[in-house]
Give the backbone structure.
Amino acid sequence: MQVELKKFGTTLLSRQNGREAFAAFQSNLASLGEKEDLKLDFEGIITFSPSWGDEFLSPLIKQYGSRMVLMNTGNPSVKATLELLEKINQLTFNVG
Amino acid sequence: MTEKDLVTISEAAEILGVSVDTLRRWDKSGKLSPIKTSGAGYRLYDGSQIELFLNNLFGLAQDWVFRGTEIPSQFYCSNSAVFQARLIRMQDILMEVAELSSIFSLIVAVAGEIGNNSFDHNLGNWPDTPGIFFSYDIHKRSIVLADRGLGILATLRRVKSELNTDEESLQVAFTEILSGRAPESRGNGLKFVRKVVAENPIGLLFQTGNAELLLSKDSGVLDIRPSSKPFRGCLALITF
């Protein structure tokens, strides 16, 4: 399954918005196959922050581990956020 | 200055986003006085004088956190939704500045983390005025954020009760990753701020309580010191 994160907005900053996005995303996850990868595409994201990322990505990586694949992570705020979240969660994102 | 540059107290109040009574108080205290008084006794302000007043963003934020003075409505975000909308507007402006193309998203993320921190940590606990001061001057390359909340020490003590001073709380907030921060699932945004500032041409002055922190590119050791004027809440100046 491939999901474009820009469908949640191109500026993803607050915890509140991250929580709302995560809740809305639950219905999409229901159709994810048991061994299927969850591909999250950052293409089109303008600004990303640890608050939003911690609410959305942290629970997903705890649940799906390396099956969660992050794509198009070149944006400087995406890169900096992912580095911090890796440190906080003490794990490494699978960047495709 | 010509007569056409002069504005009445009502017009000045509208431009500044404060009440006429506030302008009268500011006149009495000397904070902002009219340039002249008309024959009929009406206060008249000069347009460029108002512009200069609005340009002193850090001074306006200091007055608000130190003394609780009214701030122009254009700089006040009463809730997180207002802040998000204004942050996106700032992002759109920064995106147009060619020389900032490689760091504008980081500047917006840093401002977002500091502002959102104020809302997240004070929700339901604002001691008096809820919300934050948020303003920026793209020409001067500066962003100012402030809140009249509980301050870093009081909010960090909820999860780290052994903290005693504002200086210690700044050290922890900007360096220590706090995991399992039950009952709060938040924090760590200021570590992101530190990382981004240390790796990019961005500067930060952050004050809380009676301590302040200065950060700039390549600053390995945190420069934390007592501040000259203690206050409750947080005040931040981002330069780039």
In short: Residues 2-95 of chain A form one domain.
